[in-house]
């Protein structure tokens, strides 16, 4: 049995589908989830990583766990996993743990707990996801407009389907224990270029409006902790060489190049119509 936490998210939903499509038994876990949210044959369990004591039913009978950074007690979650008999854990973390440790202490604590858990572990440090562009969906549908700061600063955002594919491979294969992979797209793209790619997928132009740093800070602070806001804006506006650089880890695991943003935009064009 494979347990996927965050099973209704942009990565977890695809991972559940990939594992189930391969004929593997899957338990899909999220705070709010029902059988209608998952493919047939997948067990859906509502549970909260912020409450490790309540995770026993979700972990029952499992051998491997896909874990999100959520809640404040990673060691409690991992203890519950070990008690249930889970032997392997794959953690979805952030590239920022390596490049901005002062701003990404929360995922760093999860990485430390995973490495000290006694389980076979693999850490996936994801760059920014292509699906972050869904934040523009309402404005694009209503006005064919999208706003973002630092319009001409490029980063190699990664397709969440590629993150899910790497996670599926790592969960199923035994050759990745003790590895830390940094997952990016094939090349840097700027916000302006990503908006243009969405317009191309729609077959009509979408206007890009550049926000000031202050405007972006106010918007992000409404739903993100302030240290994460500062770290995110630092990456978006003044990325390090490491953050600008596309890695080969997706290709190393999957044996193929990662998908580019334009492909993601074409696949998800309906969300912006």
Q: Could you outline the blueprint of secondary structure elements for this entry?
A:
Layout (H helix, E strand, L loop, with lengths): L1 E4 L6 H10 L4 E5 L12 E4 L9 H4 L4 E5 L5 H11 L3 E7 L1 H4 L5 H11 L4 E7 L10 H7 L1 E5 L10 H13 L7 E4 L7 H12 L4 E5 L1 H9 L4 H12 L3 H4 L4 H6 L6 H7 L6
Share of helical residues: 40-55%
What is the strand tally? 9
Portion of residues in beta strands equals: 15-25%
The chain-level mean pLDDT equals 96
Enumerate how many helices there are, as a single number. Answer: 13
Radius of gyration, whole Å: 19 Å
Task: Let me know the largest β-sheet.
Answer: 7 strands, parallel
3D shape: globular
Q: H/E element string?
A: EHEEHEHEHHEHEHEHEHHHHH
Q: In order across it, which strands form the biggest sheet?
A: 3-2-1-4-5-6-8
Structural class by sheet pairing and helices = alpha/beta
- How far apart the termini lie comes to 38 Å
Low-pLDDT residue spans = none
Give the structure's gist in a few sentences.
This protein is an alpha/beta fold and 273 residues long. The protein has helices spanning 12-21, 56-59, 74-84, 96-99, 105-115, 137-143, 160-172, 191-202, 213-221, 226-237, 241-244, 249-254, 261-267, and strands at residues 2-5, 26-30, 43-46, 64-68, 88-94, 120-126, 145-149, 180-183, 207-211.
Notes on the protein architecture:
With 273 residues, the protein is an alpha/beta fold. The chain is built from 13 helices and 9 strands. The chain has helices at 12-21, 56-59, 74-84, 96-99, 105-115, 137-143, 160-172, 191-202, 213-221, 226-237, 241-244, 249-254, 261-267; strands at 2-5, 26-30, 43-46, 64-68, 88-94, 120-126, 145-149, 180-183, 207-211. The strands form 2 sheets. The protein has a 7-stranded parallel β-sheet with strand order 3-2-1-4-5-6-8, with helices on both faces. A two-stranded parallel ribbon has the order 7-9. α1 links the parallel β1 and β2. α1 crosses α7 (160-172), α8 packs parallel to α13 (261-267) and α9 packs antiparallel against α10 (226-237). The chain starts with a strand and ends in a 6-residue tail after the last helix.
């Amino acid at each position: 049995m494979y347990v996927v936490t965050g099973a209704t998210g942009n990565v977890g939903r695809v991972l559940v589908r990939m594992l189930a499509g391969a004929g593997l038994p899957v338990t899909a876990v999220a705070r709010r989830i029902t059988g209608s949210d998952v493919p047939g044959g997948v067990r859906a369990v509502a549970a909260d990583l912020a409450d490790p004591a309540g995770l026993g039913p979700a972990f029952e009978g499992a051998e491997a766990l896909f874990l999100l950074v959520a809640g404040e007690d990673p060691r409690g979650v991992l203890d519950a996993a070990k008690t249930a008999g889970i032997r392997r854990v794959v953690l979805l973390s952030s590239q920022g743990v390596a490049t901005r440790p002062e701003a990404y202490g929360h995922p760093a604590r999860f990485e430390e707990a995973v490495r000290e858990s006694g389980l076979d572990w693999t850490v996936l440090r994801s760059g920014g996801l292509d699906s972050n562009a869904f934040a523009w969906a309402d404005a694009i549908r209503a006005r064919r407009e999208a706003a973002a700061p630092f319009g001409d600063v490029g980063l190699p955002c990664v397709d969440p389907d590629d993150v899910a594919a790497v996670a599926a491979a790592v969960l199923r294969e035994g050759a990745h224990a003790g590895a830390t992979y940094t997952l990016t797209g094939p090349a840097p793209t700027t916000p302006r270029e990503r908006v243009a790619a969405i317009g191309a997928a729609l077959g009509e132009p979408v206007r890009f409006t550049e926000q000031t740093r202050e405007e972006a800070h106010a918007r992000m602070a409404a739903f993100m902790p302030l240290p994460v806001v500062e770290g995110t804006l630092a990456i978006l506006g003044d990325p390090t060489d490491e953050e600008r650089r596309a890695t080969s880890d997706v290709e190393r695991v999957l044996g193929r190049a990662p998908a580019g943003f334009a492909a993601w935009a074409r696949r998800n064009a309906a969300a912006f119509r």
